[in-house]
Specification:
- Helices cover 52% and strands 19% of the residues.
- The strands form 3 sheets. A 5-stranded antiparallel beta sheet has the order 2-1-5-4-3. It has a 5-stranded mixed beta sheet with strand order 7-9-10-12-11. It has a two-stranded antiparallel ribbon with strand order 6-8.
- Helix 1 runs antiparallel to helix 2 and helix 4 runs antiparallel to helix 9.
- The protein starts with a helix and ends in a 7-residue tail after the last strand.
């Protein structure tokens, strides 16, 4: 921001210097032209006076003089001097001008507002200096007016440049400052916050939109890891408790060999179940890390639903999933979406797992269909439902409905699933009735056939 201010002030300075230089250049050019033009007019009148004095061509001179405008306070003078530059005779001459006059040729000079033009003439062996003086009315009146006008114009121009620059600075910096303020509010504890994106298609809007997309990816990555911890802490605890309990029971007293074999077999079965859950959980967790190199490609959503079903069952064998593919379209292309299969599997697995977990019969009903430009996935349960007044908070990370105290969980799965769906330009909506169940509706756009 400081560099931006420095650049702005430097630009203001350059504009002011340029404007002042332009004004000075105009003033100098006009003044120079006025001086040059007036000296030419003086020289003309001096030559006419010389013709009149030395050559006696009165007729021609008088004729010429009638057509030459007399200048303001015009005055003619003549000086006769010897070879030692001593004045012998003069007429109308002010001796104070003697030092300004070139005694060997032509001289033009100015004293105050009076301009002079003199020239050396040799007549019959005698030396004369003949000169004409006049006041330059254009210089004394018009140029002064022009100078005052340019000074006022310069001051107004500088003021205009400063005001416009400050307004431009404010219009540029204000949205940037607001953007910085919103970014500073975002931390690891509230990654769900997003920057305000204006409707225009300016650079700042694109920057805010890009930053929001990056936040969504980061939030998804965080939630994926937390989701793994949540699932692992809950799903792995049951088989571990079973293994420990069987082992403790077997070691509590001396038993027959056959009883030990039965205990060891139960432990082996529980360990195998534990291995399956661990593999499934690692599969889900890995998607979060692979997401860092997010690459979308055409994937079939029905295959993803089936993979998610297998994953959920592997994590908890008590969960039941009833899948309805009766609404599938004949054209398999209508089931293809442009996305990440691991991420979509992670999102669907979480929702299906929640549907099973919060239902007394531990059953989720999944239906898949297609519409004009997308696929529709419905995941329904007949569980406890969500209180209506709490529906607006279900997308907040770590929020859990007031009727879920008897169920394990951290409130991460649904926000994570919604973020993944949003990354695929889809929509996730939830409708629920307390005590009757919840329905999650997912819409994903199908892939454009032109991209295939």
């Amino acid at each position: 921001m400081r560099n931006y201010n420095k650049i702005l002030y430097a630009l203001i300075t350059i504009l002011v210097i340029y404007t002042a230089s332009f004004v000075v250049f105009i003033m100098y050019s006009i003044t120079n032209f006025a001086f040059s033009d007036f000296y030419k007019r003086l020289e003309l009148r001096r030559n006419l006076a010389a013709e009149k004095m030395f050559n006696g061509e009165r007729v021609a001179t008088e004729w010429s003089l009638t057509y030459v405008e007399e200048l303001n306070k015009q005055h003619e003078f003549i000086v006769e001097f010897d070879e030692h530059n001593h004045i012998v005779h003069s007429s109308g001459f002010n001796k104070e001008l003697w030092q300004q006059i070139d005694k060997t040729g032509t001289s033009n000079f100015k004293i105050g507002n009076t301009f002079y033009s003199t020239k050396l003439y040799l007549q019959k062996g005698r030396r004369y200096i003949l000169g004409v003086s006049a006041e330059n009315y254009f210089y004394t009146h018009h140029l002064n007016y022009l100078r005052n006008l340019l000074i006022i114009a310069l001051l107004l121009g500088v003021l205009f440049v400063i005001v416009v620059s400050l307004l431009v600075k404010r219009s540029f910096i204000k949205p940037i400052s607001e953007l910085i303020g919103e970014v500073e509010k975002i931390g690891s504890e509230n990654l769900y916050l997003r920057l305000t994106v204006n409707r225009d298609s300016g650079v700042l809007s694109k920057l805010a939109s890009t930053f929001n997309q990056m936040l969504t990816r980061i939030e998804t990555s965080f939630e994926t890891q937390k989701n793994f911890v949540s699932n692992a802490s809950h799903e792995l605890n049951t088989p571990l408790t079973s293994i420990i309990g069987i082992a403790d029971l077997a070691l509590s007293k001396e038993r027959k060999v056959e009883e030990y074999k039965q205990s060891i077999q139960k432990i082996a079965d529980a360990a195998e179940n534990l291995e399956k859950k661990t593999s499934a959980l690692l599969l889900l967790a890995r998607t979060g890390f692979e997401n860092n190199n997010l690459t979308f490609k055409p994937v079939r959503i029905d295959q993803i639903v089936m993979d998610a079903e297998m994953t959920v069952k592997a994590i908890n064998e008590h969960f039941h999933i009833k899948t309805d593919f009766s609404m599938l379209p004949d054209d398999s292309m209508k089931l293809k979406v442009n996305g990440s299969a691991p991420l979509l599997q992670l999102a669907i697995s979480n929702i299906v797992s929640n549907a099973c977990k919060y239902s007394t019969n531990r059953t989720a009903y999944v239906a898949l269909g297609a519409f004009d430009k997308g696929v529709l996935l419905l995941i329904r349960d007949e569980g406890i439902g969500i209180p209506e007044e709490e529906l607006s908070y279900i997308y907040d990370p770590y929020f859990r409905a007031s009727n879920t105290t008897n169920f394990s969980g951290y409130g991460i799965g649904l926000p994570l699933a919604r973020n993944i769906v949003k990354m695929h330009n889809g929509q996730l909506t939830v409708s629920s009735a307390l005590g009757k169940g919840t329905t999650v509706r997912i819409e994903l756009p199908t892939i454009d056939r032109k991209l295939l």
